[in-house]
Amino acid sequence: QKEVEQNSGPLSVPEGAIASLNCTYSDRGSQSFFWYRQYSGKSPELIMSIYSNGDKEDGRFTAQLNKASQYVSLLIRDSQPSDSATYLCAVNGNNQGGKLIFGQGTELSVKP
Amino acid sequence: GAVVSQHPSRVICKSGTSVKIECRSLDFQATTMFWYRQFPKQSLMLMATSNEGSKATYEQGVEKDKFLINHASLTLSTLTVTSAHPEDSSFYICSARPGLAGDEQYFGPGTRLTVT
Fold first, then answer.
1. Option in B57, B97, B109 nearest A43 (CB)
2. Where in B26-89 does DSSP place strands (E)?
3. Cβ separation of A46 and B97 shorter than 8 Å?
4. Average model confidence (pLDDT) for chain A?
5. Digit-coded pLDDT (tens) for A17-28
6. Which member of A47, B23, B51, B57 lies 3.0 to 4.6 Å from B94 by CB, making a disulfide possible if both were Cys?
7. CB A46 to CB B44 under 8 A?
């Protein structure tokens, strides 16, 4: 079992819809969870961090964390074509010295 | 805030030569920096963790004598690819961790290395 798993996609949604990206992790001791966006040919950009169970909202983005289920998700409301990118889930594993464990990424395509 | 720069953004070198890539945290001090490599259509691969004033910790399978890392100050880490070969051609990305609160890492823009 991979440490951090994401559906590779591609996930295609129409403009204006809600895009839902999911991630599961195996280390139950993980404390910190992040979503990064990576455009093709560019480096990752941090868009959300979440540390506690529940929802965290920032603009059109909502991160959801459920530690009991070892599940973290990212919702993008009112999706725009500019949201088309690969979204990387990252987890700071327990006793990993600050290292992030990345999922393989989910490619999102927002169709106009 | 939390801006990380990398230099150069793109480099082409001949096989057998060495290339140095710089990673700087511009508006914060980073006790820890990380170096990643990414091949096309693949996810990030962590190469090493760089701590200021101490030796880098390399991931399994990464040759420490080939990929030399120096973290001489709280704002600068360098990666030197020694005796580069075409298979070293990749996208090299650094990240830095402010480490004050939370575990966020902020990425530099990356360096695209092509070895001919």
1. B109
2. 32-38, 45-51, 57-58, 67-73, 76-81
3. no
4. 93
5. 999 999 999 999
6. B23
7. no
